[in-house]
Design goal:
Number of domains: 2
Order of helices and strands: HEHEHEEEHEEHEEHEEEE
CATH architecture of the largest domain: 3-Layer(aba) Sandwich
Structural class: alpha/beta
Number of strands: 13
Distance between the termini: 30 Å
Bound molecules: ribulose-5-phosphate
Helix content: 25-40%
CATH topology of the largest domain: Rossmann fold
CATH class of the largest domain: Alpha Beta
Number of helices: 6
Shape: globular
């Protein structure tokens, strides 16, 4: 079993009958969704899933996990999602899979957030992983210029064919190759104030529990209630 599968299966243990569960996006969250699907089908687990991307929605539907839109629930009990980086003070970067907007909306509606990662995602400081910023297409060149002026080293995300990637909301992603983010809260506050920025991938003071996969086994870190 690989480390992503290990933490995905471990996190699914936190899901109980009657819960509304936020289902994250990415190659690690994939295994958690598979395990919840297995429990729904084999153990008659009764849950409602709230998905964070079209990809996860497709996976959950194929597994017959009952789903509701975030707009049709009053709250989410727990959201389980991956992360691109987690710093030593448990701040995170997400959005490598371009799902950061829905992921943040669901995370902010959740009583608890569990992040599942392999040990390579645990870092001292955020920023070696390029910080994704979701922007509307209109004015995105102006934002690229602004970010470049501020030495944030922006690159518009494209696929291997050079086509600009669009999110589930038809927005663009600008990745900021910062290297080391000294003051994540300041950067987050500045980014969200720029016209055209829809959301950024700094997930600050969000996570309740981090489940880290090591070759020796699973480490569970309780960060906040
Ligand atoms: O934020 C995300 C998607 O927008 C993912 O959770 C993050 O990119 C981690 O993905 P993976 O588990 O595939 O490494």
């Amino acid at each position: 079993m690989n480390l992503k599968q290990l933490v995905g299966i471990e996190a699914a243990k936190y899901v109980e009958d009657g819960m509304i569960v936020g289902l994250g996006t990415g190659s690690t969250a994939y295994y958690m969704v598979e395990e919840i699907g297995r429990r729904v089908n084999e153990e008659n687990l009764k849950v409602i899933g709230v998905t964070t991307s079209k990809a996860t929605e497709k996976q959950a539907l194929a597994l017959n996990i009952p789903l509701k839109s975030i707009d049709d629930v009053t709250h989410v009990d727990v959201t389980i999602d991956g992360a691109d980086e987690i710093s030593k003070d448990y701040q995170g970067i997400k959005g490598g899979g371009a799902a950061l907007l829905f992921e943040k909306i669901v995370a902010e509606s959740s009583k608890k957030n569990i992040w599942i990662v392999d040990e390579s995602k645990m870092v001292d400081y955020l920023g070696a992983f390029p910080l994704p910023v979701e922007v509307i297409p209109y004015g995105s060149t102006q934002l690229l210029n602004l970010f470049a002026e501020k030495n944030l080293h922006p690159i518009l995300r494209r696929d291997d064919n050079g086509t600009i990637i669009q999110t589930d909301s038809q927005n663009y992603i600008i990745d900021l190759h910062i290297g080391k983010i000294e003051h994540p809260h300041q950067l987050a506050d500045w980014l969200i104030k720029q016209a055209g920025v829809v959301e950024h991938g700094l997930f600050l003071d969000t996570v309740s529990t981090v489940i880290v996969g090591h070759p020796e086994g699973v480490e569970t870190i309780q960060v906040r209630d």
